[in-house]
Design brief:
Layout (H helix, E strand, L loop, with lengths): L5 E7 L5 H9 L12 E5 L12 E3 L2 E11 L3 H19 L5 H15 L5 E11 L4 E4 L4 H15 L4 E4 L6 H11 L6 E10 L7 E5 L6 H8 L3 E9 L3 E6 L4 E6 L1 H7 L10 H22 L22 E2 L4
Antiparallel strand pairs: 1-6, 1-7, 2-4, 3-4, 4-5, 5-6, 7-13, 8-9, 8-10, 10-11, 11-12
Helix pairs in contact: 2-3, 5-6
Length: 322
C-alpha cells in the first residue's frame, strides 16, 4: 500500500471526531482543473472513487488520500509561439519587445494553450497513527510531503502541529557505520543496493546495485570521505526498503512471507482495502520503532529556550485555529 514513507511527529492536536473530520475533508474534495487552471488539489476517497468516505478508519488507523492534477504546456511550444508573435510585432513596429511586455505575451500564450493541455494526476496517501502520534506521508520527497501536510494542518485545525521525526543519529552517520563495520543494526540485514557520494562540489558518486555490500571496497570509499545517501535494508525478513540520507523510506516492499501469512484475511472486505491497510500499518508499526532505535532513538533536546519545538531544517506545520 505504501511505496514511500516520510515520518512526522504530532506535537500537538485536539483531535476532532471522525464525523467532524469527514465534514472538513468534504469541504475540500478534489475538483478537476478548469479550462485555464494549471493545478488543482483536493481529497478523494482512499478506497476508490466509488466509495464516498474520505477518512477511512481501519482498526483505529486513519487513511487519507490527496489527489493533485496539473496541466502544463510544453515550454518548446510556448517558446515557438512567443518568438513568432515577437517577430510579427517587430515587423509592424520596428522594435522587439523585451522584459515585462514579452513576459505578458508569454503568459497570454500559456493561458490560451492550457485548455488543450492534457492533465496529469497523482495521489498521495496519508496515514494518521493517532496512538503513536505519528503521520506517515507516502511521498518521495520532503517538498511533496510539505504540500500535503500544509493542506492537512490548515484543514483539520484543533491546534494541529507536526514536525519531521528526528533521531539522535543522522541516517548518513548511521549508514556509514553499518557499512564500515559490515554489519546491519539489530533486526535488520544489509541488502544489495547502496549509493555513496562525496560531499564536495564535484559530488563524485559510487552506486552498487544488486551487489554484496559486505566488502572492503565499500569501507575504503567511506574512509576516502564518501558518505552513504541511500542504503537498502530488510527488516526481520518481512519488509525491504531503501533508507535515504533524509530519513525517508523508499521502495517499501512487503516480502512474500508477510503476504502468505496474512492471506486468509485478504477476503474480509470486498475490495481488499481493509486487509491491505491492516497488513501495511501492522508491519510498519513494528518496523518504525526498530528503525528509530537503530538511529540512536528519538532526538531529545536539552532543556532551554525554544527546546519545546523540534525541527529538522523545516518549520513545523501549524494549523489555522478552528
Amino acid at each position: 500500500m505504501f511505496k514511500n514513507a516520510l515520518l512526522f511527529q504530532i506535537d500537538q492536536w485536539q483531535q476532532p471526531t471522525l464525523e467532524q473530520f469527514e465534514q472538513r475533508l468534504d469541504g475540500a474534495r478534489f475538483v478537476a482543473c478548469g479550462a485555464t487552471q494549471p493545478e488543482s488539489a483536493g481529497w478523494v476517497p482512499p478506497r476508490g472513487d466509488k466509495h464516498g468516505i474520505l477518512a477511512e478508519n481501519v482498526a483505529g488507523q486513519i487513511i487519507l488520500k490527496l489527489r493533485t492534477e496539473t496541466k502544463a504546456v510544453p515550454s518548446s511550444v510556448v517558446k515557438t509561439e512567443l518568438e513568432a508573435q515577437l517577430d510579427t510585432i517587430e515587423q509592424q513596429t520596428g522594435r522587439r519587445l523585451k522584459g515585462k511586455k514579452a513576459r505578458e505575451i508569454k503568459d497570454e500564450i500559456v493561458q490560451s494553450l492550457l485548455p488543450r493541455a492534457f492533465p496529469k494526476r497523482s495521489g498521495t496517501l496519508v496515514w494518521l497513527d493517532v496512538v503513536s502520534q505519528r503521520v506517515l506521508v507516502d511521498a518521495p520527497s520532503l517538498k511533496r510531503a510539505d504540500a500535503v501536510l500544509t493542506r492537512l494542518a490548515e484543514l483539520l485545525g484543533g491546534g494541529l502541529k507536526m514536525s519531521p521525526l528526528q533521531t539522535a543519529l543522522s541516517p548518513t552517520t548511521a549508514m556509514a557505520a553499518w557499512l564500515a563495520d559490515k554489519e546491519a543494526p539489530t533486526g535488520f540485514t544489509l541488502d544489495r543496493d547502496c549509493e555513496l557520494k562525496q560531499p564536495d562540489s564535484e559530488k563524485a558518486t559510487v552506486r552498487y546495485a544488486r551487489h554484496t555490500l559486505e566488502i572492503d571496497e565499500v569501507g575504503e570509499h567511506i574512509k576516502q570521505g564518501k558518505l552513504p545517501t541511500q542504503l537498502g535494508l530488510t527488516w526481520a525478513g518481512r519488509v525491504s526498503f531503501v533508507l535515504s540520507e533524509a530519513g525517508a523510506m523508499r521502495k517499501i516492499k512487503l516480502l512474500d512471507g508477510v503476504l502468505e501469512s496474512r492471506a486468509p484475511n485478504a477476503g474480509s472486505d470486498d475490495d481488499g482495502f481493509d486487509a491491505d491497510v491492516a497488513i501495511a500499518t501492522g508491519e510498519l508499526q513494528r518496523l518504525i520503532p526498530d528503525l528509530v532505535a537503530a538511529l540512536g532513538g528519538p532526538l531529545v533536546r536539552a532543556p532551554g529556550p525554544g527546546a519545546d519545538t523540534v525541527s529538522a531544517g523545516a518549520a513545523p506545520w501549524d494549523a489555522v485555529p478552528a
